[in-house]
Amino acid sequence: MPYSFGALKSKRNGSLIITNYKRVIETWWDDEYKEYFYTREPLARYYYAGDYSKQIELKKRLKCKSFDWFMTNVASDVYKHFPKLPPNLFWGEVRNLKSEECLDTGSAQPPHTVHSSYCHSHGGNQLFRLNAKGQLGVGERCIDASTDKMILIHCKLGTVDGPWKYDKKTKRMIHKKLNMCLQQRDDGAIHLTECNDDMTDTRQQWKWRQIRPK
């Protein structure tokens, strides 16, 4: 844990665990595999991870094989359980245009109801991602929904897809299987309901905003 203490602690601008993951990944993983990590943890791309040039020099000096070689020859069965992640179409905070509040998992463990709260722009429980195959998630967790609530769940093993779509024109979050839209009720609760043709009703309108570490 290189940044848990000492003079460099003040330079760290993100999660200690994710920062240390980044040091390992930037040292050992090939570019293709790095992108899978940053797809899952998009804010980590901007975390300060310190100087790891000595680790890279050691890797070169020892003539270590590439990470792709490892994945092909040692861990070739990984993709059966953990398929390659599609790129994110959107990531960041998801703000409701009516209340100006953001979707929030409350730092809870699945299963847990997703709610809305003040947009703090620090990521964490408000850092959502939507990939090209419709998976909506937060870190290693996924988002499911019923008509009465939005739920944080464990992602189904072996899948990278999902039922979600964001319409940039209407600013709606759409559940494709149910053909319903995400809405914040007047009491603040998040639920799915029939998509409203009234474009002045901003309860169903959401805006994605990428953030940066503070």
From TrEMBL:
It is a single-pass type II membrane protein. GO terms for molecular function: carbohydrate binding; metal ion binding; polypeptide N-acetylgalactosaminyltransferase activity. It holds the Pfam family Ricin_B_lectin. Keywords: Disulfide bond, Glycosyltransferase, Golgi apparatus, Lectin, Manganese, Membrane, Metal-binding, Signal-anchor, Transferase, Transmembrane, Transmembrane helix. Pathway: Protein modification; protein glycosylation. Residues 91-209 form the Ricin B lectin domain. This is Protein-UDP acetylgalactosaminyltransferase 7. It is found in: Golgi apparatus membrane. GO terms for cellular component: Golgi membrane. SMART domains: RICIN. Belongs to the glycosyltransferase 2 family. GalNAc-T subfamily. InterPro entries: Nucleotide-diphossugar_trans, Ricin_B-like_lectins, Ricin_B_lectin. Its cofactor is Mn(2+). One of its GO terms (biological process) is protein O-linked glycosylation.
